[in-house]
Design a protein that fits this description.
alpha+beta, outer membrane lipoprotein receptor (LolB), chain A, 2 helices, globular
Length: about 190
């Protein structure tokens, strides 16, 4: 039960990260980069770091109020690693074909309900916008930077009863991230 909860959280954070990729991408981006986002909403403010090595590895790191949730996906080895820095512990969870394809299915479902918002400059980046109408009356507006390979620059989600949440690109680095970001750190126990 505990493993399933961590897996679902990890997959959710990776899907959030994957949605930061170009709209045409259904898997981990094939180019290396790092992006930092500021997230705001009714829950307050948090930070989200995304890193991709261009070889099937992605890292999602969410920080809020001193706590940090880290998920690493390895498409080649078909696994998710959930790091719990406060406990110096990690959990490795294998991914099934169904779990991997569900990430693409989420993207396919979103694309089926997409509407173009055209072009607009946001934070100095020429962007292409898309609005998605999702289940439960949820709407998401995504602006991807054309000058940075389609990486998300800004997004806004409006959910009935939950309010508005926004993600704004704070920093983009097109250089490859260090390989150690995609491994379990030394000294961690692995469950």
């Amino acid at each position: 039960m505990k493993a399933n909860r961590y897996l679902m959280f990890s997959m959710l954070t990776m899907v959030i990260g994957i949605q930061a990729l170009p709209a045409s991408s259904l898997e981990i981006d094939r180019k290396a980069y790092q992006a930092e986002y500021k997230l705001t909403g009714s829950y307050g403010t948090s930070q989200h770091l995304m890193a991709f090595d261009g070889n099937g590895h992605g890292r999602s790191e969410m920080s809020r109020n001193g706590s940090k949730n880290i998920s690493i996906i390895d498409y080649q080895q078909r696994k998710v690693m959930v790091l719990m820095p406060g406990m110096k512990s990690a959990m490795t969870i294998p991914l099934t074909d169904d779990q991997l394809s569900s990430m693409g299915a989420i993207s396919d479902k979103m694309k089926a309900r997409a509407r173009s918002l055209g072009l607009k400059t946001i934070l100095g980046h020429p962007c292409t916008g898309t609005k998605y109408s999702l289940e439960g009356g949820v709407e998401e507006e995504i602006w991807n930077g054309n000058d940075i390979g389609g990486v998300r620059v800004y997004s806004k989600v409006v959910a009935p009863g939950a309010g508005v949440s926004e993600a704004t690109l704070v920093k983009f680095d097109p250089s490859p991230p260090p390989a150690k970001l995609f491994t379990i750190p030394a000294g961690y126990s692995v469950n």
